[in-house]
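My current task is to audit a protein record that another person submitted. I need someone to confirm that the token line plausibly describes how this chain folds. Take the sequence as given and treat only the tokens as open to question. This is what I was given:
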Amino acid sequence: MRLLATGLLVAMAGLFLLSRQLVPLHPGWGYLRAFAEAAMVGGLADWFAVTALFRRPLGLPIPHTAIIPENKDRIADTMAAFLRDNFLTPQVVARRLQTLDAARLAGQFLANPRGSESRLRDGATSLLADVLESLDQEKLGGLAKGAVRTQFERLDLAPLLGQMLGAMVADGRHMPLVESGIRKAAHILEANEEMIRAMIHERANALMRFARLDERLANTILDGLYKLLAETVVIPDHPLRVKIEEGLQQLAHDLVHDPEMRARVERMKGEILANPAFAAWLDALWERARARLLRAVREPDGALSGQLGTSVAELGRALQHDPRLQHLVNRFARRTLVGVATRYGSQIVRLVSETVRRWDARTVTDRIEGAVGRDLQFIRINGTLVGGLVGVAIHAIDGAL
């Protein structure tokens, strides 16, 4: 596109020189000369304006040129201030989200992620991917993992588990799990039958072993256990099933109302959070999320292909047409984004500013020009053509007067 704009400017210069030679032959060639002259001036002016954004025209030290590389740090601070003042204060986030239908917008994108594609959008997407890759991963990862850990620490886990368990028992959704557990116990018993027989044989006295009563005792115990487990699975009101259900109901009640049980769950949660395995899990979770985000940004078609793409599209359609789901998603989005802005707004702003400041001038220029440079070349083309039309109009008015 840059070659096209430059070629058009050169063509106008050649046309101007040619028209100068033709004007004496007929007055009509004056219109061509006026068009070429004005187009050349307009094209040169827009070339200078566009070039001055990214570099010094012709390498000359003209004041107020190479604006972006010369003002890299100021651009970083301006970007940070823009984010802070327009996006990352709780008041601004809450006010903007009042009228924002985040669920519908997300649904439109998920249902057709490439439907409203444009050059500017592709450039912005590429710029976003470059920014994500160049951000300080230690700081950004620490920020994300710290947010997840904080949410786990603030989560009152015992009442949540108790409510979930109570709802499962009330709806009867616990019985498939109970039956699966009983069947698993039967498989374990069958797999370890020889060990159980050996334990009974070792603990039997010599007289029982001599009379082979230990084998009869082992058979009786194992048959009784098999029968108990089989009847528990088959009979809906079996006493063991009733006891298990009562135990689950009591556990659900204790998780919600018993301070000692809640304190025990909190201690267990604290031990899990302090375990190095949890930190390793967070590290792996962050790396997978970052890799998927980069892939989704750089290759949206590949990231949303196959069954995943179908599921995402169905979710997008549901978000567009289900009012109840829209209300839930919008309410969650408002609360989440306001909370993030409150807790992490200043850190995000500082992270963006420090990252852009660390870029060298060429990196900043290449990334911004890659995002919007193609559209800026259209400014040069439009300036050349509009300038030519204005020149023709002025020539016509001058001739009329």
User: Anything to note?
Assistant: The chain has 20 helices and no strands.
